[in-house]
């Protein structure tokens, strides 16, 4: 029994000595742990650099918004609008004139389909605050739509648009507002704007139009009152 214990102790001692000698030998060997440490340090350095860049961007004042060009540098926009007498005429012209008043360098050519200028249109133009030219030309009877005819049977507003183009070409004919056409060589843009459409002010930067339609009012009560001699005053706009 004592011999066996001595053998076990001796074997344990020899194994321990061998392990100690191996450890001592390894302590003198060069360590290969530097590359991973260098890589980790580089990653931390890159993250710190990115954080510094983001902080600098946050401290930087925002760029000044782009300034719109001066009105004098813009070409004049000549807006051509045919119009004709009807119950909703004033409402539609007021809506259009207030949109146009927001646009710089705009000249409104309003052309009535009538024998002469009407008080309603003349008064509206005078109160609009716009630079305008008032023109008048009557559509020939053969080209007029009859009651109940679809709109595609005859072209509408052609005479009035041509009248505006004649004025721009120097042929005169204005009955109100700016009567002298622009001199030859004037830079400008011509846009045909119907009086029954709705226009965004952004149209004059990016082509935004809604083709709307105002329903014709039902006037049976008014017609009945007119037959009784108690109708509305027809000179209300005079």
Describe the structure.
This protein has 7 helices and 7 strands. The chain starts with a helix and ends in an 11-residue tail after the last helix. By secondary structure, the protein is an alpha/beta fold. The relative contact order is 0.12. The strands form 2 sheets. Strands 4-3-2-1-5 form a 5-stranded mixed beta sheet, with helices on both faces. Strands 6-7 form a two-stranded antiparallel ribbon.
Q: Topology, please?
A:
Elements: H1 2-27, H2 34-59, E1 76-83, H3 89-100, E2 106-112, H4 119-128, E3 131-136, H5 158-168, E4 176-177, E5 188-192, E6 198-199, H6 203-206, E7 209-210, H7 220-227
Helix pairs in contact: 3-4
Brief descriptors of the model:
238 residues; alpha/beta; 5-stranded mixed β-sheet; two-stranded antiparallel ribbon; 7 helices; 13% strand; elongated
């Amino acid at each position: 029994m004592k011999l066996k214990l001595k053998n076990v102790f001796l074997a344990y001692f020899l194994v321990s000595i061998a392990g100690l000698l191996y450890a001592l030998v390894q302590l003198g060997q060069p360590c290969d742990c530097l590359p991973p440490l260098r890589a980790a340090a580089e990653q931390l350095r890159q993250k710190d650099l990115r954080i510094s860049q983001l902080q600098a961007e946050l401290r930087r004042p925002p760029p000044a918004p782009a300034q719109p060009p001066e009105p004098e540098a813009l070409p004049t926009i000549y807006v051509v609008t045919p119009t004709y007498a009807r119950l909703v005429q004033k409402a539609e012209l007021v809506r259009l004139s207030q949109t146009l008043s927001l646009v710089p360098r705009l000249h409104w050519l309003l052309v009535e389909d009538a024998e002469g200028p009407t008080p309603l249109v003349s008064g509206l133009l005078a109160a609009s605050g716009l630079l305008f030219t008032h023109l008048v030309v009557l559509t020939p009877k053969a080209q007029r739509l009859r009651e109940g005819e679809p709109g595609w049977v005859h072209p509408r507003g052609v005479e009035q648009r041509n009248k505006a183009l004649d004025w721009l070409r120097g042929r005169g004919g204005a009955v109100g507002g700016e009567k002298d056409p622009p001199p030859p060589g004037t830079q400008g843009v011509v846009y045909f704007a119907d009086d029954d459409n709705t226009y965004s002010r952004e149209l004059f930067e990016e082509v935004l139009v809604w083709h709307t339609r105002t329903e014709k009012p039902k006037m049976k009560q008014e017609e009945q009152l007119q037959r009784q001699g108690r109708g509305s005053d027809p000179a209300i706009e005079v």
